[in-house]
Amino acid sequence: MLFSSHIGANLHLNLIPFDGTWQFCKGDSNICICRESLPPSCRRSSATLSVHNEVVTMETEGMCGEQKGLKLKWFDVGPNLTNTQKHAISQLSPTLSNRCKALMRRAICFSPQEENLPFLLASWVKAMKPKRCHWLLILKEMKKLDFPFYFEVMEYALMENSFEPNVRDYTKLIDAYAKTDRVHDALKIFQTMKDRGVQCDQVTLTVLIYMYSKAGDLYRAKEAFEEIRLPDKRAYGSMVMAYIRAQELFLAESLLKQMEAKEAFVGREVYKAMLRSYSNSGDADGAQRIFDAIQFAGIVPDSKLCALLVNAYCLAGKTEGARSCIDNMRNAGLKPNDKCIALMLGAYNKDGKLESALDFLMKLEKDGVEIEEEASEVLARWLRQIGVIEEVGLVLREFLEVKRRGIASSP
């Protein structure tokens, strides 16, 4: 494992426990090992933030640092490293300064079972006196290494004056938390941002729309959207997605029409999400409107978008409409995928139209479209139901044999 426990025994600290309350180290133990939890009075919404504040309080009161004889050898991580850790250390960017390399070596060898990350970071800040540029390089390297505690390091940095955090830093972390379904953490960072008097800008408000919609709070998502004076394409897209998640498809479509009136259009994925919602609910008319809007926006539909429209018609029981969609695909030079064919065969099966299904398959075969796994299973189940699966299988085997002979005899 890349981030494991070979750092703790190699820090060589000399810190005498004070008052028997905090035992950071004992002999060769690690400063980042906290034997007891923080006092309740110091606990806040985030464990990282509360530990950060505790460290600051201790330093202010002269309870850690050089006053206690702390000597941390940052450039010696010890000999007990795995080959994976050695390789990761060797891959660190050569442009990193020594103070950045010092922390990155410790991070690569970090063990959450034996060490405490906030105290490691606090020790680094006290010893190395980093500036914003150093924090940014550290975060960049950790992201490249896929450091499992990247978010925690970023959260800690936001509390450090040396990082000089701005609104964009808070926004990035809120967005990252929301996109990884850590909405509760995103809300905590937003609250911290407000508590520190950092004002939201349009980018932040757009991220908040996404965050609130993921949390299921459509009311606050709308509030954030209404605070944006001149919404751009991304803000509109986020609000449309918020309506889609809340199953308010009428409001989502109304917002799309407002954008169209301004000759502005959301991205392909937003249209696809809208089309999927109508498709899954079997609303063929709604799906067709969105499909038309996609083309009006200058987006060329692919087979996946067409499959969503076909599915809407099939669920609505409009088999001819679904067939018309597939015929339009073929006329446009777009081959229907396996999903489209399976949906069409399923619709014909439901209607009991075997002759129409065979005509459909013959036209596909003429266009060189092969039936794949999903469509084959649908067809096999249908033929089994009417008791002709064995006869069809025999015909297919004879057909394949003739085809094989033809290939073998060809020059």
Would you mind describing this structure in some detail?
The chain is an all-alpha fold and about 400 residues long. The chain has a domain at about 1-165. It has helices spanning about 45-60, 85-90, 100-110, 115-130, 130-145, 150-160, 165-180, 185-195, 200-215, 220-225, 235-245, 250-260, 270-280, 285-295, 305-315, 320-330, 340-350, 355-365, 375-385, 390-410.
Short note summarizing the structure:
The chain has 411 residues and is mainly alpha-helical. The chain is built from 20 helices and no strands. PPR repeats lie at residues 166-200, 267-301, 302-336.
How are the elements arranged and paired?
Elements: H1 47-60, H2 83-90, H3 98-108, H4 117-128, H5 132-144, H6 150-158, H7 167-179, H8 183-195, H9 202-214, H10 218-227, H11 233-245, H12 249-261, H13 268-280, H14 284-296, H15 303-315, H16 319-331, H17 338-351, H18 354-366, H19 373-385, H20 389-409
Shape: elongated
Q: Which structural class do you get from the secondary structure elements?
A: mainly alpha
Individual helix count: 20
Query: Helicity, in percent?
Result: 55-70%
Main β sheet profile: none
What share of residues are in beta strands? under 5%
Query: Which spans of ≥5 residues are poorly predicted at pLDDT below 50?
Result: 4-46, 58-70
Distance between the termini: 58 Å
Number of DSSP strands?
0
What letter string, H or E per element, gives the SSE order?
Answer: HHHHHHHHHHHHHHHHHHHH
What is the alpha-carbon Rg in Å? 31 Å
**How confident is the prediction overall: mean pLDDT?**
81
